[in-house]
């Protein structure tokens, strides 16, 4: 007897499955075949922790990118200009020995003193992070404005100079603060950068201030004032 190949319709139980499969996704189709294996594939594809093991690594990568950005900027700045007279420094009187010593008591006392801010800015310049002080000062200046058009103009200038990723003076801010700034820039006010200003103030306090107190710039002021007092 000669074998005859079956060319009829697909059995209903399989045909129904295939017919209904037309509108199903590839993932759903996989889950319908292979039993538990398909279900495992679907669950794995929906897991939010595809990179869960590298959360800290991602943060580290952001930090490393910030460090690389600072190094590239350092290369663009000549060592010869590192200790030049600071342009546009604040007008202030020569600090007394008592004032200089108060700067070491707290960062707030340093930042409230115009002469202290100038000296600290000089130190930041040697660390290639002067933009932090410049940004903070610009925010303080913006807070004094009441004219709306002037506020908008200064806010736009601050954004372009210190917030934009295209600026060589960009300050280091986290994504949340940047998002807040972008939202507030739709209608700028004197407080548009208050979150960013606080973050940069905290950064200078925790990161730069301890090194400033140990720097030759500050020590020379303290020792120089001590010698002057003893001689008189």
Proportion of strand residues: under 5%
Please tally the β strands and state the result.
0
Quickly give the structural class. Answer: mainly alpha
Q: So, the CATH homologous superfamily of the domain at 95-224?
A: Regulator of G-protein Signalling 4, domain 2
- Please tell me the overall pLDDT: 75
User: Based on the structure given, which CATH architecture of the domain at 95-224 is correct?
Assistant: Orthogonal Bundle
Helix content: 55-70%
Q: Can you offer a commentary on this structure?
A:
It is a single chain. The chain has helices spanning 12-20, 26-31, 36-46, 55-76, 97-102, 107-112, 114-126, 130-143, 148-163, 175-184, 194-213, 216-231. By secondary structure, the protein is mostly helical. It has a domain at 95-224: Orthogonal Bundle (Regulator of G-protein Signalling 4, domain 2). The longest helix has 22 residues, at 55-76. The protein starts with 11 loop residues before the first helix and ends with a helix. The relative contact order is 0.08.
């Amino acid at each position: 007897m000669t074998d005859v190949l079956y060319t009829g319709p697909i059995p209903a139980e399989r045909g129904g499955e295939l017919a209904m499969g037309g509108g199903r996704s590839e993932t759903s189709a996989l889950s319908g075949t292979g039993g538990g294996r398909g279900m495992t594939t679907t669950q794995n594809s929906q897991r939010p922790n595809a990179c869960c093991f590298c959360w800290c690594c991602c943060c580290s990568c952001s930090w490393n990118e910030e460090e690389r950005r600072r190094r590239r900027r350092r290369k663009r700045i000549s060592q010869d200009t590192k200790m030049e007279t600071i342009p546009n420094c604040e007008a202030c009187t020569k600090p007394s020995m008592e004032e200089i010593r108060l700067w070491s008591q707290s960062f707030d006392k340093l930042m409230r003193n115009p002469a202290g801010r100038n000296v600290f800015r000089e130190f930041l310049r040697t660390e290639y992070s002067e933009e932090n002080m410049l940004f903070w000062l610009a925010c303080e200046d913006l807070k004094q404005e009441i004219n709306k058009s002037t506020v908008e103009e200064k806010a736009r200038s601050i954004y372009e100079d210190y917030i934009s990723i295209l600026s060589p003076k960009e300050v280091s801010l986290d994504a949340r603060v940047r998002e807040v700034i972008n939202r507030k820039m739709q209608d700028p006010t004197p407080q548009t950068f208050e979150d960013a200003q606080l973050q940069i103030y905290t950064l200078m306090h925790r990161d730069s201030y301890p090194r400033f107190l140990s720097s030759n710039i500050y020590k020379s002021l303290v020792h120089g004032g001590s010698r002057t007092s003893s001689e008189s």
